[in-house]
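The aim of this short unit is practical: by the end, you should be able to scan a pair of folded records and say something sensible about each. We start with the first protein, listed as its amino acid sequence and then its structure tokens.
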Amino acid sequence: MSLHGPILDRMTEIDSRLVADNDERRHFHSAYLRSTTAVLRSIDAGVFEDAEWAERWAIAFAELYLDAFDRWERADHPAGPWQVAFDASRDPGIPPVRHALLGINAHINYDLPQAFLAVITDEEFDDPALMERRATDHRRVDSILVRRVPDEDKRLAQVEEPGDRTILDSLMRPFNRAGTRRFLKDGRRKVWRNARILSDARRRGEVHYAKALGVLERLCQDRIADLVTPRFVLVHLAVYGFGVDLPPSVGSGEAAPSPI
């Protein structure tokens, strides 16, 4: 029995409201709704190694975003990366492509490691064969996202005003699919590494886990704040990379090798 119907219904309701209100958060939310729908349809079609696990993972991932969304709506201070990203929606000078990048960065760098910990136990992190299956399903998700890039780029172009993209941004548009593939690969490697460090911290107890998650939050918040500032966003990502790196010392020493 499918578990994801309520999540998609909720995201669709929010999407309708954001679009009707011309809310700048719609640029990330709408893209994320379409991408999540594509991933869940692929899960239903049986293209994943472990469909049951992949569905639980996708739902846990979406729920982290929706929780942050609801907290910001209530002025209840979501985690730092989302606070910065959502606060930026009040700035009419930030172009749509950057709003989308802010949401993508916060969701992947901050939420995704936590989503993995929600559906992978610490003991499972020690099982190389199982982790390779999980990594294979992660790569399948990335392949789905890469295929969606041309459509999402076209949709962003339809809502952009003249001057929203720099000349360099425009020149790089034919390479967006390749660039996205590279950014996702970089993010995937760092997310798995960070998830393992968080798992190490979780084994040591709640205090250690909270400390490690706090470090990840600060790193991600700084990255989001940096992306808000006016600059060539794509060049900045190319130079500094998409992800963030947790220091292994916040876990229990050197992190185990990533399965990616």
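Turning to the second protein, read its sequence before its tokens, just as you did above.
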Amino acid sequence: MLFLLLACGDDEEINWVQYNAADDLVEVEVGASDVLDPVSAPLHSSTGEVEIGSGTVDPGGGPIGTEHRVVVELFDDYDQDIGRVTVRTTSGDRGEDEYELTPDSTGKGIWLVEVVSVGEEGEIRTDTLRFRVWTEGEVVE
């Protein structure tokens, strides 16, 4: 009987609710001739009233093919509430992509992913990287 109860739980999906403000973002220069300094932004609660951490992209720009390290660091008071972190890239005519960040093995509110800027030779643009921090909402069956 216990097996049947556990098996039923596998059909449930987590309903993720965005924990941070929708406008927590940075801009990255793609196609720049030089590798640029990192760019960072504070992350805020959903109302924008409380700072909950920071998001950084290093480097903050560079030539096509540059590998960027995206790091989200959450303050201790909030990291236990978070179960998922993503970054959504908006690249003009190239559209949008979303990347899952991986939590650091220490469980101390640090999440990261490596992304590579893509484009045609000679292309220059400014991409927006929007940090999205998620908490579990109600379970959807």
